[in-house]
Design goal:
Largest sheet: 5 strands, mixed
Number of domains: 1
Number of strands: 9
Radius of gyration: 23 Å
CATH class: Alpha Beta
Strand order of the largest sheet: 6-3-7-8-9
Strand content: 25-35%
Oligomer: single chain
Shape: elongated
CATH topology: Double Stranded RNA Binding Domain
Distance between the termini: 98 Å
Structural class: alpha/beta
CATH superfamily: Lipoprotein like domain
Length: 216
């Protein structure tokens, strides 16, 4: 009697192949881990906490922010993870400044004194990326994003410097909102919110005006 032939379908059924194709096409899961893309938009919570302030502000985002990713899997036994940080944070930071200040100018090339004077920008905010944290445990996952912020006057004189960290605890996010994408988005939003509120507080207190007068 001839030996029976083994067909490929015995190992990979049609439903399995269809499911794998859908996952790969979605860009969320791969055979080697997870690609995590955040929505990149601010929530209603941000708009309720950060109200527009009467001020003209310039914003310059460090070029390294735009394509920033992290492959920190967060734990020894966690699946490989790729967090696409820059593609979400850049539009969120821009939206945060549009909401936080009545006049906003985005500077897309390296700022100069002539540029700031041309657009009448009294304060320039420069955001530089810092550490990205990913902590995976059996109970959940916490994500954090740190930025270093520098502030300059219209003459590019140093005014202020501070570090901001936004974090999200996935023990709440996964249970109520569902997914690492939302968790990442929350951490980035909290970072942008802290920056906006810090700047607003500095403007209200007049702290920057005092610093500018010292450098002139």
């Amino acid at each position: 009697m001839p030996e029976p032939k083994i067909r490929p379908a015995a190992f990979f059924s049609a439903p399995f192949l269809i499911c794998a194709a859908v996952l790969l096409a979605s860009g969320c899961a791969t055979l080697f881990g997870w690609d995590i893309h955040a929505p990149g938009v601010l929530s209603n919570r941000f708009y309720s906490r950060v109200l527009p302030q009467e001020q003209r502000i310039g914003l310059y985002l460090d070029p390294s922010l735009h394509g920033m990713i992290s492959t920190d899997r967060g734990g020894r036994f966690a699946d490989p993870q790729t967090y696409h940080i820059g593609e979400a944070y850049v539009p969120m930071a821009i939206e945060a400044f549009q909401q936080g200040f009545t006049e906003f100018v985005l500077i897309e090339s390296e700022p100069t004194q002539e540029m700031l004077r041309q657009y009448a920008i009294p304060y320039l905010v420069y955001i530089k990326p810092g550490d990205f944290g990913n902590d995976v445990t059996l109970k959940g996952q916490a994500v954090s994003f740190e930025t270093e912020v520098f502030v300059f006057d219209r003459n590019l004189g140093f005014v202020d410097r501070f570090t901001t960290t936004g974090s999200s605890d996935a023990k709440k996010v996964f249970a109520k909102k569902g997914g690492p994408q939302v968790n990442l988005n929350a951490a980035l939003e909290n970072n942008a919110e802290s920056i906006a509120l810090h700047i607003q507080d500095a403007l209200r207190s007049g702290r920057w005006v005092k610093n500018v007068s010292k450098t002139e």
